[in-house]
Every structure is written in C-alpha cells, then in structure tokens.
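Sanity check record (used in CI):
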Amino acid sequence: MMSHTSPEGTPPPEPSPPASAEVPAAAPASADPAPAAPAEAPAAESVTAGSPAADAPAAPDAVGDPAAAAAKAPGGFAAPVAPATEPPAPAKLPAQPYPAEAARFAPLPPPPPGFLATRWQGPDYAGGPAAWTAALIGGLATAIALPLSRPAVGWLLVGLVMAGAIWHAARFGPKPDTRSERLIRIGWAVLALALLAVGTFRDAGWLYVFCVLGAVACGSLAVAGGHSVRAVIVGALALPLAAFRAIPWLGRGASAWQKSREKGGTAGRIVLSLVVTVILLIVFGALLASADAAFATLLGDILPEINMRTFMRLLIYTVIGGLITAGAIFTVLAPPDLSGLERPSSRRIGRIEVALPLGGLVLLFAAFVAVQLRFFFGDKAYIQKTSGLTYSEYAVQGFGQLLVVTLLTLVVIGLVSRWAVKETVQDRVLLRSLLGALVLLSMVIVGSAVWRMWLYQNTYGWTRERLFFGSVELYLGGVFVLIALAGWKLRAGWFPRAAVAGFAGLLLFLGAANPEHFIAEQNVERFQKIDFWYLRALGPDAAPELVKLPEPYRSCALSWMVRDLRDNPDQWYAWNLSRDHARDLIAEIKSELRPAQGSCIAAERENANRR
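Expected output for DUF4173 domain-containing protein:
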C-alpha cells in the first residue's frame, strides 16, 4: 500500500481548484488569513540587487524652474510644486472579518464638506517669492511705523503700504463682474483708509479702537465682497481668517522656492540676502544699542528705542503685519464664493406665523409709545409728578433696556423679511403693514432712548460713554429709516452694505466732531455742577478747553496730560495733530501751572464749597 506522505515526511500539496471555481468573498471568522501573505512575496522579491531595474537612477526631484512657475502663477505670487515620484502601491490586505452582531449597525456617512472646502479653497498654487516679498514689506512697515499704544499717523502709513501691496496682487486675481462692484470694492478700501486716518488728527483712544476695527471690516469687504446680510458678515470676517490660512500657503511656497532656488539665477538669492540682512541688522542693532547710550540715541532719531524688548516687539509686529498682508493677498487671488449665501432662503413661514407675533409686538410697542408721548413735551416738574421719579432717575432708567429692544427689533425684522411668504398680493400687503407699523413705533422708541440719554447728560454731565452710546442709538434710528425705504419692495440688496457703511460714517463723523473737545467744552461751562475729577481723564483733544479753566482747576485738570506728554515724546511715526497742539498750549502756560498735588487738593476744597 502506498503511503500518502512525501519522502521527507510532509504531506503532498493539495491539488489546485479549477479556474472556474468560485472564491468565497470573505473567510470565516475562524480562518487564519496568514497564508495569503506569501502570495505578495514574489512581487517584492522580483527586483534583485543586480538587476537592471535596481541599478537604474532614481527619478529626479520634479520641481519646475522659476520661469515655468511664473507662467503658471500670475504675477509670481506663487511657486507651484511639481508632483514627486509616484510612491509604490500599498500591499493589499485580505478582507477583515467582523462579528455578526456588528452587521446591525450601518456605517456612519462621512461628514459633508465645510464652507472652506466647498466655497473657499484658496489659490491652487503656493505662495511664491512675490507673496513672501509683499508680506515682508507689510510686516516691516508694521514693525517700523505702527504705534500700537496710541493713535498716530503711523497707522495710516502702514495702511497705505499694505493697500499698495494688495492692489499689486489684485491685478493678477479675478476681477469683479461689474464696474459698479469694482467701484464698491474701491469705496470699501477708501473707507478703511479714512478710518485709519482719524488717528492722525484725534487722540481719543476709545474712539480709535472702533475706527481700527471698522477699518479691518471695511478692508475685508474690499477684498472679499458680499451683498446679503450673511455674505457681508462672512466678508467682513474673511481677512482675519485668511491671515491664518495664509500660513500653510506661504509654507508651501517657501518649500518650492527652496527646491528651485539653485535653478532660479540671482533674483531669488538677492531677495533671500535682503531678508537675512534685515534680520541681522535688527538683531545686532538691538544688542549694540543696549551696550552704548550714544549709539542708541543715534538710532533713536530714526527708529524706535532699540533694546531687547523693542526687538521682540518688532519681531511680533513683523509677523502680525506680514500675516495680515499675506491674508489679504490670499483672499484677493482666490476670494470666497459667497453666491450660496446670496440666495434667498427656501424656508417659509405662513401668514399666521407672521401675523400673530408681529401683531403682538405692534400692540405692545403702541402701548409703550402712548405712555412715552406724555413725557416728550413735559418739563421737569411734570415728569416728577407723573412718573414719581426725579428728573435724573427718569433719565437713567431704561436707556440700556431700550437699546437692547432696538437691537432685538432689528433681528426680528430681518428674520421675518427673509422667511415670510411673499407670493401673493395679500401676503405682501400684510407684511408691509405689520413691518411698517413696527418700524414706525421702533423709531419712536429710539427717540425715547435718545431723549433719556439727553436728560441723563444734562443732569450728570457729558462723558465719553454717554456720548458714544447716544450716537449709536441715533445710528440705529437711521437703520430703521433705511428699513422703511427698503420695505416697499421687500427686498433691497443694498441694505446690508449701507448699514455697515453707515456705522463707518458715524465713526468718521465722531472723529471730525472731536468728541473729547465737545465734552470738555460742555463741562467747562458748568464745571461746578459735575464731578470735576473726570476732566483729568480727558486726552489732548480737550486741551483747548481745559486751558480756559481758572486756577487751581486748570493745573489739576491738565496734570495727567502734562505728565503723559512729557514722558512719552512722539517720534515721526507717532505724530498726532491733537498732541502736537496740546504741547504748544501747555508750553504757553507752563510758567503759570502749579504743582499737581497741591492744585488738586485746592481744587477739591473749592469744588466742595461750590456744592
């Protein structure tokens, strides 16, 4: 009888199944998938050390030369990276068995792509030498000429430098569709520069903070655009977001630039040498200035005070300014697609959902207005008699609540205008009637809030906060006027941009009106009725009025200003018209000023006697 084993004692191989045999889709749970691995081994061992394929040279690093890169990336703002050698295909793994109870759970669908992936992918090329150069120019301008701690002409200078770099890049990006849209973009840019220019003439830091934020929003709309409410909000926030998105974009450009630098001739080397030169001058200049006072004085006439702290500040400012410039160029070359935010909403609410809430608000506002109309024409005695409150208590009470009511009413009107049904004539008549009544009553509420603030300021005196919030309430009244104008057609694409431009116009008006000078003028005329110590906190804008005070009030009111102007001299980039004028006024009366401590004690004593 023949044995079924081989001479070595191992069983013979199983006969191969016929070619037409069906292979199961997955092995049973108890099957060992390990035997499938040797099937891939011959492919891996097919290339030996001595074979021609092994001795063949590796594919060179596929990086295009600068000429080809500039041809693909307009304006040289990018350096596209050619694809590298194709990596080997990964080894195939056998199908993995799953427990039977796992089949009851369906796999989760992948999350839908977000706004950045679908609407704002950015440029399809990396940020090349031109983008780096523009970012470096904007960063160095920020580091050299930006006085972050105070309003000054340097803000406008930095804005002009950045605007020039962005305008140069905009020539290579997509153009707006219509001529009117191009003019609107230019208008946003001009408005941003005008807001930055406020710091050249006014020293009110609290006002200039809003001007800088408004300039960022207007500059963002200049590069990103936007028409509807949602699109304008996204467009106003595009520039800060793009500053972060520009980091990997510049990183890819630097990598491509480094790989092609040897083939790029002398241009790339010159730019790199200039960058290294600037860095070395800043580092060694800071060290040498900290070692010798005379050298520091020499540099201080041209640059800010040079020391290690200044060096860190310059480095941080360079990075921030460079990223803002690069983010604006990133947006100009590939702006976000806001068309999805411009479409009207598909959600609709019927007549009942519109009539009941709006009708209730109209009745509530009408009752409030009926009560308030009694006080609009009443004097101080009438208000005290009918309301049971003193004149000052009535002025203080309710302004904040009325401001919140005004803002919430704008939100309600916006949501109803977007979602309400407008297909039939009856729908449009109902919507116009309810929204029109709500707008008119809201304007009366705005008038009530402004009236209360006027009484408040006449009772307690004018301050920055009271003046600013009163101006904001007046601006909201103007927004209601715009809503009334847009409500006739129930659709106005110009309204969101007009509202933003209106607030920027309010800031420009306050800057031109010189609010701190106005506050000082009002309080100086009746300084015995207010907290006199508040005048000390006013800035150089108020100096022309504070110098009119009698002694010892004048010396006390100017004490903080005199100390600040003495301890913080302005360099060329920190020049400000109000501070320069205040120095001249103080120099004229310097011999008449008394010591701050003694004058303030005497002023407090006399002020107490006046009351």
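The CA atoms of residues 223 and 331 lie 6 Å apart. If this sentence no longer matches the regenerated tokens, the check is flagged for review.
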